[in-house]
Design a protein that fits this description.
The protein has six helices and no strands. By secondary structure, it is mainly α. The chain has one domain.
Length: 150
C-alpha cells in the first residue's frame, strides 16, 4: 500500500543581499548602522568595529593608489564603464559577505562575521568616493553607475 501523499514544505529564504544588484545604493541599504553593530558586539563580548570614517578614509587611500595605475579613457562614458567594471565585483563580494554573516546562527561568530563584512563595505564605500572624485565634476553619474545620493 503506497504511503499517503505528504508534502513537507521547506522555505528557503534568500537574503535581500543576495538579490540586490551590486550598486553603492544596494550596499548602503544592506548595511546595519555602526551604532547597532557596536551594541551587538558589546552584548556578545566581541570586538567592536573600527570607526566607519577611518575605514572609508583607508578605502579612499587604497583606491587612489590603484586607480592612479589605471589608464582611464578621456571619454566620460568610457571612463564610467571602466570605473564601473573596476568597482562592481568588490561591491558584489561585500554584499555576499553580508549575506553570509547574516546566515550564521546568532552568537559571537555571527557578530564577528557581520563586523568584518561591515568593515569591508566601509572600505568599498571609501573607494567609491575616490571613484566619484575621478569623475572630475563632469556631471553626476546615474544610479546605474553606482552613485550614492544624499
Amino acid at each position: 500500500m503506497p504511503a499517503p501523499d505528504t508534502f513537507e514544505k521547506t522555505v528557503i529564504r534568500f537574503p535581500s543581499e543576495r538579490r540586490l544588484a551590486p550598486t553603492i545604493a544596494s550596499l548602503e541599504k544592506a548595511l546595519p548602522s555602526e551604532g547597532l553593530l557596536r551594541v551587538k558586539a558589546e552584548r556578545r563580548g566581541c570586538r567592536k568595529p573600527h570607526a566607519g570614517s577611518d575605514l572609508r578614509a583607508f578605502g579612499r587611500e587604497r583606491a587612489g593608489f590603484y586607480l592612479a595605475k589605471l589608464a582611464l579613457p578621456s571619454d566620460l562614458g568610457e571612463r564610467r564603464q571602466v570605473l564601473r567594471e573596476w568597482l562592481a565585483p568588490n561591491i558584489g563580494r561585500a554584499l555576499a559577505r553580508i549575506a553570509e554573516a547574516r546566515a550564521l546562527p546568532p552568537g559571537p561568530e555571527s557578530v564577528d562575521a557581520e563586523t568584518l563584512a561591515w568593515e569591508t563595505a566601509q572600505n568599498i564605500l571609501g573607494a567609491y568616493e575616490a571613484v566619484e572624485h575621478l569623475m572630475d565634476g563632469a556631471g553626476a553619474l546615474s544610479d546605474g553607475d553606482m552613485v550614492r545620493r544624499g
